Amino acid sequence: MKPSLVWRKAVCWTVLTGCITVLTPVSLGKVEPTIDPADKEACQAQLNMIFEAIQEYRKQHESRLPDKLSDLTPEFIQNPKMICPYVRKTGGLRAWREEGTRELGRDPRTSYGYEFPPEALRDDLWRGLPKRTWREFKERQVEKIGPVVPIVRCHVHEPRLNLAFDGHIYESGLYWEKNYQQLVPEEEMEPAALFADPAGRKKPVVEDFSHRDPGASPRLLDLTTHYNGLLTDSWQGFPSNHLAQLPSGLQQFGGVPFDVRGVIQLRAGAHVFPFPFPEKVEGIRVNQKCSRIHFLHATAFDPLTQTNIAAYVIHYAEKQVQEIPIVYGKQIADSWVDPKHPLELTDAKVAWTGQNEAAEAYGKSLRIYQSAWENPLKNVEVATISFVTAATISAPFLIAITIDP
Length: 405
What we know:
- The protein has 405 residues and is of the alpha+beta class.
- Helix content is 17%, strand content 24%.
């Protein structure tokens, strides 16, 4: 795990770089990282002691790992040995704790980060059923890439020190996965890839989607050939996370008719999904003049509010181009919502609220949002629309587009 000063948003910025180890420090505050070889050597000696203690613990507990590092004391290791020597000489655990730096297990008796706690993955990393733990996630990483996966990390060194599952110690940047990306692509090391339902890996084709109602007005744009996700499937790779409850076919939301039959999912700037979703979808045909365009959409995972996560690009028949920014907290928000603390959008409204098995298990509900854009060139025919991601932590998806004449 990676230390963090701001838990909720730290995960988001960690995932942005393409790996899923939590806790990203803005800085270590008073405990500045050390590059001194003597500090490194002393810490390596400590890490070797910790590894030996973990092995002894496993011998006496039917090969089970400890739930936290402090479970090793006092039977297998002396308490002072659980603190990096550099941390000890620069103020000790009190200074470490006062700076707000925490590892995933929040173990107050050590400055080392333990990578295999039995704590559940939060819903900003895994949104499927069954729920998964960090230990399960790390065990899957070991199966995938081998025992190079760190079991303990020390973040006060530059580069960081990693005690691998097999006992060897190596250096890395904040993201140890980058050392091995030539062996295993980073996207294959994420929870969504490691735990995804194999049945959900089927790429849908046009024939998988329900036929468009022959009575649908041309105002309700036909997105059939652009869909890459079925409403009834866990298209993002998280089992039991879907939009099966969303009314489909010709529907009205907020007094606006929509043709609801599938999803156009774009990728995020991080490997949070197991599938290679596109950066953009172009050529959504309009071939009409319009005064206003309505979008039915949402996103997966929340970045910082006011982040531009995507855009709709309007291509006119006379070659003009207009870009419509999609800003988190204005036109769009996460489809997973804490019903006790919902985010109210400034430039859109909630079109639909519902549920699925996964969201319910995490105490969340589902929302789809409806936003509208006033066309400044009402007398010029719109040829096509493009849907383009800004490659943030958030992965936007589009369900339907309707135009007003």
